[in-house]
UniProtKB/TrEMBL annotation, chains A, B:
It comes from Leuconostoc kimchii (strain IMSNU 11154 / KCTC 2386 / IH25). Transmembrane segments: none annotated. One of its GO terms (molecular function) is DNA-binding transcription factor activity. Residues 7-62 form the HTH lacI-type domain. Coiled coil: none annotated. InterPro entries: HTH_LacI, Lambda_DNA-bd_dom_sf, Peripla_BP_I, SBP_2_dom. This is KDG operon repressor (KdgR), LacI family. It comes from the Bacteria. Keywords: DNA-binding, Transcription, Transcription regulation.
Amino acid sequence: MDKNKKLTIVDIATKAGVSTATVSRFLNGQLNQMSEKTAVKLQKIIEETSYTRNVAAVQLAKQKSNLVAVIASNIDEYFSSEYFKGIVSILSAQGFIGVLFDSNSNTTTESALMASVYNQKFAGMVLQPVSTDPHLIEKFTNDAVPVVLIDRDIGNGQSITVTTNNFQVTKYAMEHFLNQGFNKVTIITEPINRISTRVERIAGVRSVFDHSQLIEVDSDHLNFSELSDELDINNPKNLLFVLKERLLIQLLANTKLLNEPKIPQRITGFIDTSMPKYLAPNYKFIQQSPFLMGATAAEVLLAQISAKQPEHIKQIVIPSKFE
Amino acid sequence: MDKNKKLTIVDIATKAGVSTATVSRFLNGQLNQMSEKTAVKLQKIIEETSYTRNVAAVQLAKQKSNLVAVIASNIDEYFSSEYFKGIVSILSAQGFIGVLFDSNSNTTTESALMASVYNQKFAGMVLQPVSTDPHLIEKFTNDAVPVVLIDRDIGNGQSITVTTNNFQVTKYAMEHFLNQGFNKVTIITEPINRISTRVERIAGVRSVFDHSQLIEVDSDHLNFSELSDELDINNPKNLLFVLKERLLIQLLANTKLLNEPKIPQRITGFIDTSMPKYLAPNYKFIQQSPFLMGATAAEVLLAQISAKQPEHIKQIVIPSKFE
């Protein structure tokens, strides 16, 4: 085996036939959460490879910080807790510490936090951008401070970005519902504000359905009863497609559709937790893998910090599931 | 008016007759989220008082950091996102930046993070402790690094702690259900591990009901169908009291009780979000105020940083509601 080949967490998981979350747990010493057999197997694979905790040691020898900043667009989202846990699982196995900042969906806050991260000389930054300014991270790039974007693309063609396949998975899900006989989609989303995930998902709907309508809502001040006419919920050919889990759960809980098991699924959306599945076990939803997105972002960032990142890789896509 | 009296966010909210969340929004410039009248009133009150952004300026003049570390026991909990948002709302109005660490319910991780916070010379720390060691923060105390504990008490009688009234609000809720005719309580909780919030809530149940049983579950590997006999759910005199919201939601979604509106409420618990209320609008739950707990912890911490904290205040209780 070539000892110089740097393995990723996905390589190790594949070799061992376990999930990446299991590898992360192993790297963090949470051995009580797996069988002894799995732990022994992982230990062996890791000993045989160069997947060792050495990046931070190099960093500290250069008298640089071992803190990595993670700026989330809104920490109220379960999505951000999960990708942060994924980031930390990789960082801590290599001696780094992840710290979380909340830009609270506000571009002014975001730029203040970025200035602080820049000035305090963090080892690197993972950013879920609120701003869509392509020059957003230019200062970091010019100064060779490693940055990885997560979840959202700012379209500068320069930054390394870890996203999911928003367009494709939406298109795939919509084809399923088209085949079920739906002829119209009502899309319910927070204000789009040119945010790439929202733009791509809407494009995925429109690539399949000729008829769609868009409802932008502020999730903090939502009253579904005010919306009920717009939602067109009693039209059996109208699919409700909800881009944000909290809105989806409210809608599932507020309609009477779930009480009548013979009515086919008429509501779907993107989910981050198992809660929608508790409410509607037979429904299909689009589920992202935020933990794996975070773990991957951290691996790419560490590769940049240790200057091992091949420069031509600009985007990594972690597919979502529709099931 | 005495200009030397330092007002708290609660004082200002009381004077203005608005919520503390509104004051926080005002301090953070989110003026679009309140009426002009409210904004003008708050501006006037703040101008008349000494509630100004000066702490960080003093700090920076002393060449100290303006970063405050917040170590959460598990950032998957909506509770921690909310208290972090409360902390940040106060800190940022005074020029400080809050950063969030996740100890992942693990005492080893917690002590590694605390060591890092200590070594990197943060301005202060808000800690939701996992360990129950009364000596946990001795190093910080001895070195006069300001620390405030949140949510959980470590019983050292020394640290300033912001908690809710776990015992009293549980007792109050249990008296309500005793009056409804229940004669037994099944308590469902994560492993207690001597964590003060869990201990106090259980004591609150036992102060009212002679008969109670305790089920400790690991929320990551929960299968309610395996538990169904233990839960004794079909006994109309048995109340299910769930200490963790995610378990409560699973239980609400999995039982058929909600489908039959004539059956009186037989499940309650502590909630952090509105989701249980979406599922069961007529049920009563215990709701904490994590945003206000965080805002209060930040105020106390800032008072310590600027050495204005009266030394005799050791515990601040932010009451929960049962409604």
